[in-house]
Write a structure and sequence with these properties.
The protein has about 130 residues and is of the alpha/beta class. It has one domain: Rossmann fold. The protein has helices at about 10-20, 25, 35-45, 60-70, 90-100, 110-120, 125-130; strands at about 1-5, 30-35, 50, 75-80, 105. Strands 3-2-1-4-5 form a 5-stranded parallel beta sheet, sandwiched between helices. α5 (about 90-100) links the parallel β4 (about 75-80) and β5 (about 105). The termini are close together.
Length: about 130
Amino acid sequence: MNIGLIAHESKKMLMQNFCIAYKGILSRNDIFATGTTGRMVEAVTNLNVHKFLPGNLGGMQQLGSQIENNTMDAVIFLREPNRTGPRDMGAEEIINLCDTYNIPIATNLATAELVILAIDRGDLDWREIYK
């Protein structure tokens, strides 16, 4: 499965810890991430992460394109929920794209754990048929 990872600045360490905890599951899948998040995850897990540009330099749009092309199977987006401003338009767009194209998205640690465990159990294997 193709799993997209995005983390706002204040959530990057949480993303690193999440990826350390679920390294075994993540290692059996293809991981894609915005640039800074991808580098940080690689540094602590030694996982192979396909990195896009940093989010604010076009990485969010690159990930969004993958969602639109139905090549992403799940997205884990650890975000700052009360963040507002022009830089946050990418966050809303990613969430809307996932809703539009029926891509499971987790926006906090609790749902991220549900999604990653569902991937491990095979609960999202229907994505292969959906493609």
